[in-house]
Amino acid sequence: MTVSDTMTDQAHATPDATIASAPARLVREGALIAAIVPFKVKVGNRTQLLVKVTTEDGLEGWGESGLTSREDAVIGALGAFSEFLIGQDSRRIGRLWQECYRSQYFEGGRVLTAAISAIDIALYDLLGKRLGVPVHQLLGGAQRDRVGSFATSTARKTDEVIAEVKELIAAGWDCVRIAPDYDDGDVVHDARASIAPTVEKLGAVRAAIGPSVGLGIDYHHRLSLAEAARFCNLLPEATLDFLEEPIRCETPESYAALRRMTNVPFAVGEEFASKWQAGPFIEQGLTQFMRVDICNIGGFTEAMKVAGWSERHYIDLMPHNPLGPICTAATTHMCAAVPNFAWVETRLDPINTKGLQDTTMFPVQVRMDGPFYIVSDAPGLGIEVDEAALKAAGVADQQEVPHLRHPDGSVTNW
Question: Residues near 336 by Cβ (< 8 Å), separated by ≥ 6?
Fold first, then answer.
């Protein structure tokens, strides 16, 4: 049938007939969602919740959820969403996002948006494959050919940290991050006691690497407001390029108070589960880098809105990227498509791979050249998943992060 024949048929069809024929056309094209299947697997030292969305023509898209240690709750949300998503047009991504978010009285929340994230990423992967274009093309096209990253030293002793940081710099990294003076394996964490030795460590690292390399630290929201202010005030001028997540993000007013007490740039956002949560931090200048996590905030649909809003306020993205190849691929496409970008977190560096990029389960992944992720032009996300290998690995056991406590026995943040 020619295009003119189609136009003639449509011209003679009644409106009702045209509407009635729409589902039939979709069935022929095979774009209706046929299945949504979660895979909870152990990759390296972390559990990953992957989601496969299949359409009626057998095309598959892959996504990932980022709610670490609460994967079972997300799987429950995925089951609820599947009840009304199966049978719908996989190409209507924005509408499906809205239906998932708004189709209950209690909107949003991290569990729901983590599930939405995985589905949304998978739908973009599907659409890119269907059209034969990379996901970044669906987002407006690549603005850069490669995506720069920062890497992390997790050593504890200062001399070991300096050695790792120098190794990263020698390998090409121009931005590095270190950890405060504690160990994630410790059950007891004294945040206040960590401040002075962490300041000393940072001073020694800065002296060792000079002023030209970006230097940051992630305090994993373990400080109180007063502790965070003390930490910042003890730092020598221009030690840090960014302080990541010093306190929790639920109360923007607390960040506003901290902002008034220090000129250290903040990197905040990996906890955000919506543009509404990000809004006050953008509008009030409470963060200088946006740590958006595409696997938690709501996938490409929500992350690109936050990116555009951040651009208006001259805030660069510094995305959280703690998971595996699907998260990394989705994040790379997003970073390629935005103008306001600083660095993306990487776990693919000489000292810190942690096995998260398993090549058996993920035989085709985003390529890396030194500190740079290379933007893929392959259709969809540009990765491949070996489903047989996922199934052979079996369902991962529940992974519980350490439940930290203060020296007096009270609970503190992990």
Answer: 136, 142, 143, 144, 147, 375
Question: How far apart, in whole angstroms, are the C-alpha atoms of residue 277 and residue 297?
Answer: 9
What SS3 class is residue 41? strand
Q: How many residues does the chain have?
A: 414
Is the domain defined by 3-134 classed in CATH 3.30.390.10?
A: yes
Compute CA distances 47 → 125, 290, 292, 329, 355, whole Å. 22, 25, 20, 18, 11
Q: Catalytic residue numbers?
A: 220, 320
Q: Please report the DSSP string for 240-283 in residue order.
A: -SEEE--S-SS-HHHHHHHHHH--PPEEE-TT--SHHHHHHHHH
Residues of the chain predicted below pLDDT 70? 1-28, 183-186, 353-354
State the DSSP code for 249: S
CA separation (Å) from 252 to 241, 262, 375?
Answer: 21, 16, 35
Q: In this predicted structure, what is the pLDDT of residue 16?
A: 41
Closest CA to 180 of 164, 167, 197, 165: 197
Determine the Cα–Cα distance for residues 304 and 139; give it in Å rounded to an integer: 8
Q: How far apart, in whole angstroms, are the C-alpha atoms of residue 71 and residue 391?
A: 17
Question: Does residue 315 contact residue 295 with C-beta atoms inside 8 Å?
Answer: no
* pTM greater than 0.70: yes
187, 402 contact by CB (below 8 A)? yes
Q: Are 276 and 249 in contact (CB under 8 A)?
A: no
> What proportions of the chain, in percent to the nearest 5, are helix, strand and coil?
40, 15, 40
Domain limits, the chain: 3-134, 137-377
Q: Tokens at residue 86, please?
A: 């199966």
pLDDT of residue 29: 74
The pLDDT assigned to 398 comes to 86
- Write down the CATH superfamily of domain 137-377: Enolase-like C-terminal domain (3.20.20.120)
Number of helices and strands (H, E) in the chain? 14, 13
The pLDDT value recorded for residue 4 is: 36
Do residues 56 and 31 touch, judged by C-beta distance below 8 A?
yes
What is the spatial distance between Cα 165 and Cα 171, in angstroms, rounded to a whole number?
Answer: 10
128 three-class SS: helix
Measuring CA to CA, which residue among 191, 196, 160 is closest to residue 178? 160
Q: In this structure, which amino acid lies at residue 192?
A: R
Tell me the pLDDT tens digit for each residue of 177-192. 999 987 555 688 899 9
